[in-house]
């Protein structure tokens, strides 16, 4: 993995602006302050990149969060299967469903933000030189 790709992933995880990878997209860093989970800067505080590129831009993130939720569930299925085993003959599949549901609920605020950051990064490319 190249350095550039690493910093792309860490900027996603930290919800940084995709253009400068320095500015924060969200006003409050803690996604678990649920009232403020959608509270974003209109423009990146570091490079001035607009965050909501057009009216209704964030509607597209519904698909992104859906895909992340599915991937996350598959990941949970894999480790749960390896550690506890899953069988249709007992309740284990329900235990997994409950575990997965709880884990999804726990990461949901972060997931909502990551899907916005990821979605924005599809449209805005990294331009470190244009930071002003
Ligand atoms: Zn920026």
UniProtKB/TrEMBL annotation:
> What are the transmembrane regions?
63-82, 94-112
Q: Mind listing the UniProt keywords for this protein, alphabetically? A: Membrane, Transmembrane, Transmembrane helix
Q: What is this protein called?
A: DUF983 domain-containing protein
